[in-house]
Every structure is written in structure tokens, then in C-alpha cells.
């Protein structure tokens, strides 16, 4: 379940959302407004409660698709705290051109390093059509920190 930490709520499959919500709790004293959904002991997400029918006690529980799942035991008490400390996997992959700019190398030098097998295919880099994608971790390993 810890693999869900740092994931956007909207990126979850519907069946995963349903499972988590069925087992979640919210602050008992929240009847309308912002709240924290404790999805499990180690997973929480920020949401809100909207009152649909006050007389019948009907409430709608809403979690924004951009809400970030976090571990409240890490001292995080808000979604923004969690968002500031999350590394998204998509940020760890870039084009060879982007990597060349960041590391001050030529695109050709990185492609030569790929041909010289300094990078592991399928792990460090992959082709996506005409674009070559490479991981930040691989660039650090071969060329050092930025």
C-alpha cells in the first residue's frame, strides 16, 4: 500500500478508489467543508464534505483528482506538505535533449554513451518512437550530479 504515497487520487483505478473509500474514515466532526480521509493507518488524502440534504443527513464525500495521497505518520498534516515532498516518477524521465541541456553535454555525446553501452536499455533508457527517453538516475550515475 505504501506505493500509493505520492500518487494523485485521479490516477487510481476506480476499483482502487472504491476499496479505499469503503475502508476510510473522515473527521467525525466535519459535516461540511474540508476534511482528511484516513484511507488506511498509513494513507491519507485531503477531501471535502458537501451537505446535499441537511434535513435527511445526506452528505457527499469528494476527493479532488489532483489530491495527493500521503502518510500522516511522516509528520505531514496537509496535502500541500505531502506534495512538496513527493518525487513523481514522470519527473525522473526526460528526453536525451533535455538531459543534454541539464548536464551541459551534447545530445551526440549522450547518444554515443548509449551506443557504448554505458546505459542499460530498458532500464536507463528506451526509445519512444523517434524520441529517446533516459532516466535522471542513469544520467547521475554516468555523468554525476547536475
Automatic annotation (TrEMBL):
Residue ranges annotated for the Helix-turn-helix domain, each copy included: 90-146
InterPro entries attached to this UniProt entry: HTH_59_Firmicutes_type
Protein's recorded name: Helix-turn-helix domain-containing protein
Native species: Clostridium sartagoforme AAU1
Amino acid at each position: 500500500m505504501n506505493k500509493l504515497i505520492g500518487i494523485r487520487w485521479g490516477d487510481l483505478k476506480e476499483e482502487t478508489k472504491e476499496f479505499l473509500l469503503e475502508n476510510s474514515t473522515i473527521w467525525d466532526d466535519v459535516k461540511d467543508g474540508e476534511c482528511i480521509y484516513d484511507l488506511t493507518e498509513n494513507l491519507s488524502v485531503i477531501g471535502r464534505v458537501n451537505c446535499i440534504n441537511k434535513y435527511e443527513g445526506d452528505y457527499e464525500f469528494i476527493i479532488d483528482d489532483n489530491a495527493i495521497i500521503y502518510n500522516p505518520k511522516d509528520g505531514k498534516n496537509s496535502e500541500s506538505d505531502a506534495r512538496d515532498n513527493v518525487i513523481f516518477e514522470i519527473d525522473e524521465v526526460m528526453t536525451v535533449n533535455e538531459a543534454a541541456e541539464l548536464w551541459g553535454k551534447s545530445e551526440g555525446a549522450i547518444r554515443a554513451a548509449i551506443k557504448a553501452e554505458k546505459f542499460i536499455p530498458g532500464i536507463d533508457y528506451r526509445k519512444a518512437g523517434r524520441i529517446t527517453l533516459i532516466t535522471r538516475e542513469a544520467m547521475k550515475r554516468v555523468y554525476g550530479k547536475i
